[in-house]
């Protein structure tokens, strides 16, 4: 009886860790291809500020307008165009999570009746955007892309990175203009978050176990009082570090293993004491 809660906690911790680890490795090994949030509309969206470029034609043609599926809004254009003076243009996307881009989809654009598109481009990736740009093939390798303004896919075999740059090499039309969508997979759970979750999970289980033990002790003390045996139980507030974990709820898991019956006793003057003792952390129930 005394050892059961211990095993219970340990088992749950192990299961929790295994499930999390499995999810992690499945994500990396599987590389389930999805649109990464450049295209609109999409399941997710890369913030505008994460799309940048070497130059822009003017403020209506900024990098974040270069999303496939985007519509003109007022003077805001539906493509990214580089400045005419830019001899080495590029559009860059930053990913918060380590990302493997497998497919680049590109489109041209109709600017006031003139179709413009990018015939070829080079691709580079980096983790810090400052140095260490790794080119797909080489900096002069041209990946052949559009032959008209309609969508064309180019498949890559690059490694994981936080930044990707597409460097248009040849273009048709007056300006270098394009819209893009990126497909690939993301390592959505950075190591820091992973360690945090495991630690938090452990603290939650530990706290719950302590709370249960406390409630049990007090219940028996109360029973003794009711039997006429004088026994004073002084309720102690939990130490601050314990109540700090209260907000970390993991879905339905929070009620697993709770000794408290699902049907709460009615709140009356006579059972108030018991209720408070069963629920030492009242904010847990709200
Ligand atoms: C970025 O970092 C990851 C993980 O450390 C590494 O595998 C990858 O090769 C790096 N990418 C680049 C472009 O340096
Ligand atoms: C992509 O991978 C294939 C085989 O793994 C290799 O032959 C090819 O050179 C790679 N392409 C680039 C541009 O790195
Ligand atoms: C490009 O590839 C993506 C992902 O596989 C796909 O959803 C999209 O329809 C493709 N686009 C074109 C023009 O083939």
Q: What's this, in brief?
A:
By secondary structure, the protein is α+β, with helices and mostly antiparallel strands. It contains four helices and eleven strands, in the order αβββββββββββααα. The longest helix is centred in the C-terminal third of the chain and has 36 residues.
Strand content: 15-25%
* Rg computed from alpha carbons, rounded to a whole number of angstroms: 29 Å
| Category from helices, strands and their pairing | alpha+beta
Helix content: 25-40%
Low-confidence residue ranges: 228-233, 241-286
Distance between the termini: 31 Å
Question: Any idea what the shape is?
Answer: elongated
How many strand units?
11
Compute the number of helices.
4
Order of helices and strands: HEEEEEEEEEEEHHH
Bound molecules: 2-acetamido-2-deoxy-beta-D-glucopyranose
Largest sheet: 11 strands, antiparallel
Mean pLDDT, rounded to whole units?
78
Search tags:
alpha+beta, binds 2-acetamido-2-deoxy-beta-D-glucopyranose, eleven-stranded antiparallel β-sheet, 24% strand, 26% helix, disordered C terminus, elongated, 286 residues
Describe the structure.
- The chain has helices at 4-30, 191-226, 240-243, 272-278, and strands at residues 34-35, 51-53, 80-81, 91-107, 109-111, 114-126, 134-135, 143-144, 152-155, 161-172, 177-186.
- The chain is of the alpha+beta class.
- Strand 5 (109-111) and strand 6 form a beta hairpin.
- Helix 1 runs antiparallel to helix 2.
- The longest helix is centred in the C-terminal third of the chain and has 36 residues, at 191-226.
- 25% of the residues are buried.
- The structure holds 2-acetamido-2-deoxy-beta-D-glucopyranose (3 copies).
- The site of one 2-acetamido-2-deoxy-beta-D-glucopyranose has 3 residues, from loops.
- One 2-acetamido-2-deoxy-beta-D-glucopyranose (NAG) binds next to strand 6.
């Amino acid at each position: 009886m005394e050892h059961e809660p211990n095993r219970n906690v340990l088992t749950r911790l192990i299961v929790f860790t295994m499930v999390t680890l499995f999810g992690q490795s499945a994500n990396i090994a599987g590389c389930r291809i999805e649109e990464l949030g450049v295209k609109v509309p999409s399941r997710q969206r890369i913030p505008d500020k994460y799309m940048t470029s070497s130059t822009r034609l003017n403020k209506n043609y900024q990098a974040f307008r270069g999303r496939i599926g985007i519509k003109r809004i007022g003077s805001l254009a539906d493509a990214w165009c580089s400045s005419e003076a830019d001899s080495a243009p590029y559009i860059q996307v930053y990913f918060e999570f380590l990302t493997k881009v497998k497919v680049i989809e590109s489109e041209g654009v109709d600017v006031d009746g003139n179709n413009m598109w990018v015939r070829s481009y080079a691709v580079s990736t980096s983790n810090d955007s400052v140095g260490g740009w790794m080119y797909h093939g080489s900096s002069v390798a041209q990946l052949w892309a559009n032959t008209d303004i309609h969508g064309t896919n180019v498949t890559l075999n690059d490694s994981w990175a936080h930044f990707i740059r597409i460097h248009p090499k040849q273009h048709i039309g007056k300006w270098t203009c394009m819209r893009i969508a990126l497909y690939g997979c993301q390592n959505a759970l950075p190591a820091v978050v992973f360690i945090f979750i495991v630690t938090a999970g452990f603290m939650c289980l530990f706290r719950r176990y302590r709370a249960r033990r406390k409630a049990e002790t007090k219940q028996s003390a109360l029973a003794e009082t009711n039997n006429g045996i004088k026994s004073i139980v002084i309720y102690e507030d939990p130490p601050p570090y314990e109540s700090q974990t209260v907000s970390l709820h993991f879905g339905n898991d929070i009620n697993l293993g709770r000794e408290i019956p699902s049907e709460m006793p009615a709140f009356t003057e006579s059972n108030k004491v018991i209720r408070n003792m069963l629920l030492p952390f009242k904010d847990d129930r709200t």
